[in-house]
Amino acid sequence: MGEAPSTTTSGSVAGSATNLPFAVHVIRGRWFSLFASFLVMTGAGATYLFGVYSKDIKSSLGYDQTTLNLLGFFKDLGANVGVLSGLIAEVTPTWFVLLLGSALNFGGYFMIWLAVTNRIAKPKVWQMCLYICIGANSQNFANTGALVTTVCNFPESRGVVLGLLKGFTGLSGAIMTQIYLAIYGNDSKSLILLIAWLPAAISVVFVYTIRAMTLVRQPNELRIFYRFLCVSIFLALFIMGMTIAQNIVTFSRRAYAGSASVVIFVLFVPLFIAIKEELNLWVRNKHQPVIVPEVKIENMNQNNEHQSTNPTSLELDNPNPKPKAKTSCFANVFLNKPERGEDYSILQALLSTDMLILFVATFCGLGTSLTAVDNLGQIGESLGYPTKTIKSFVSLLSIWNYFGRIFAGFVSEILLVKYKFPRTLMFTLVLFLSCGGLLLIAFPIPGSVYVASIIIGFSFGAQLPLIFAIISELFGLKYYSTLFNCGQLGSPLGSYILNVRVTGPLYDREALKELAKKGLDRSAVKELVCMGNHCYRSSFIILACVCCFGGLSSLILVIRTRKFYNGDIYKKFRDEAQIIAT
């Protein structure tokens, strides 16, 4: 941070000297880093747009539905297997993670665009699967670079931070849709090109501003996050209104440009909030400098050893300390585990009972939710809803996905801090809520799909922030970049088994039964279509049972961690943080 200019300096020079250090202070500040993370996460949800451009892939490359579903699986696989980005983040700085992610994003989606627009020879199916897997996997690098770093910068507000950042990811598809309509019109092939260059450009622009910083505790922190929350809620409601209006009224190119301009302006409102907070800190630091030793994020687990009040420091006064007994790797991983909330090693966390239970709950919860989301269009078609109504289902699901993420972040944080309400219990309740949405599809009544879309969207959105927060609380932040990526591995596995192996075949079986009643066989029709309430009944009863089992598994984790959540889980961060008065 720069020095205040001397009073003897001339006005013009003083002005430039004041502006430059403050500008540097803003760019290097926590709040500007948080704003940059919002924008990076806004570009990290391109996978939600697959349903928009998948028809172009199918028609341009001559794929059947089975091949397209295979591409969809590899998209989910790439989006959810982020172990590689986590391991890279353990040994490289944040800027490298973001740059690598932007390169993968551009490379994967740009190759898909070249193939769809026939600018290159038709790729083999495995090549297209590789391209979409690489492009989708890039979002894990954005998650690891922006989300993990921001959680480490605001450890006492991690639930709120996770809710906000994942909320912007949830809105990502809708935001990019508004921008692409303004730039390219209704040319959905160009949407793939936008997905290729826009998220990559955002990461490159903010690559050096997102980094781990000195721990600072601000008493008014939550109040600032509420301002960001209000901005994001307004953005979500505006996009929902525009989406509904665009489905009812035909928009001109100028109207699309006006809508996109409002979206972009609202996206930059958090910048003004960040500048205001950095200005407050700038003025406060000039008048009341805080003389506290800096505590770096990467050394958080070692700080207690250097405090004079810690009994371990007294060992230095002993001239003949006893040598510590060596323990085997097996003992360290399985027997000598830290207390919950302390920093686990990667193996200690992955092989713990708590992580195993969380994996089962994630498999059941996210697996069933992804299956419902992927089949929502077909569900509407089988129940006889028109195309516009089906789009409304998708819009409802997307918006309530956002509200679920925000709810999981803010409400779980308030309940945890004020009432010691365990985040694991909220995760359990969300899974049971999801069961209700699945049953509404299994046993549909008029209008029930609207309610099911809201319930499933809300519960699906709420699960990820809760899972990420629980992992950070139980296993510490030292290896969080790897552990939070490992924590969602159950999602693609659940999606593959429940969607590809269960829901798809059961739907095809019902469709074949309908053909048999008409005296036809599979060769008589080009596409298998099932119409009626029975089409998804069996599969969604199974999904509801699986989700309920996940909720019961999560209840075991609630019982195991109740003592931990009854304590003060943020105490060590308050002790280690540099304190700034209001």
TrEMBL record:
Entry's localization field: Membrane
Major place of residence: membrane
Ranges where the Nodulin-like domain occurs: 30-275
Annotated NFD4 C-terminal domain residues: 354-565
Keyword Metal-binding in annotation: no
Membrane topology: Multi-pass membrane protein
Pfam families on file: NFD4_C, Nodulin-like
Name listed for the protein in its UniProt record: Nodulin-like domain-containing protein
UniProt organism field: Lactuca saligna
